[in-house]
Amino acid sequence: MIGLALSGGGSRAMAFHLGCLRALEDLGVLPEIDVLSTISGGSVIGAYYAYTPDKTFAQFEADIREFLRQGFQHKIILELAKPWNLVRCLASAAATTIDGIAAQIRGREPRILRYPTRSDLFHEVLANGVFPGLRMSSPRRHKLEIVIGACELRTGTAFRFSTSAAGSWRHGALLEPDVEVAFAVAASAAYPLLLPAFDRRWIFSKGGAAKESRVLLTDGGVYDNLGAAVLEPGRDNAYSLHTHACDHLIVCSAGQGQASGVLLPLAFLNRIRRSFGVVHRRVQDGAMQRMHVLKEARLIKGFALPYLGQQDDKLPWKPPDLVPRTAVVDYRTNFAPMTCAWIDTLSSRGEQLTRLLVSHYLPDICR
Question: What is the pLDDT of residue 333?
Fold first, then answer.
């Protein structure tokens, strides 16, 4: 089995992964992928690839480029600016704030769900313009199995949506797992510094019993920004709803890698951003190391790690026209509109690294 993981990283990840997918298509590998695991920005492009089986790759790429040029931030702001949406969001925020204060005083759990929020508007933007009418069970390219990763904040665990199941090991399996693709993607990409967590009450099945639980779903990168865990062999079904033991892994990461040390994170937002980035990088480093351990233990046949933040001098060989790490590594990770020049630059690095590394480390799966 061949597993492909697309990391988080907002629009930067989408553009980088576009190049990665283009290289895999050219190498003849993309149609052979069995399982696709996605996080945040990787979920937007990965789900769009999976759930557009009637589009050629050229049509898919043209659509992704248009999404990147338009961005999603402005569309969310426009939705929020609509009087009815603004009133509803403000009323929801006020009600949950008052309820939260009362709950602390009385020593009880807050009762009012925070709905709607900016994240719900993001969901609407995706449902109307990217994934209209699509559910997790909808037809997919090559019957591809897709796993879209989010994080459940109450328990601090992974919460994943797939074509066959949804939920987490703490809550159990969602009784109605066939959610909208747009919702799964929005939950996966709800970056917590900008978008509130989705607040829902759902019924889960665990240990043969059904129970209603309140969940808070946020960006999957908070828990696992690579998304590779579900593809690794040796996962215990007792603790995971999603186990896909792949023997070839392709893990595309839009992470920055080592910090340049140029930025002095003194201001509040810079401190928070850098602290969040350090946590992400440390978790990713551990996930990358696991792939080496799996390979050395012969639990997988091989892996390739196209990595935006890859140190260029550590590559097996360096193409003369390689887009350098320094040219892309500091591009922001939000969903703001992206220029054509940046789309070309980021996707070119993704394509170059993927072609080089997959050909070098996984030659047996290339055409």
Answer: 86
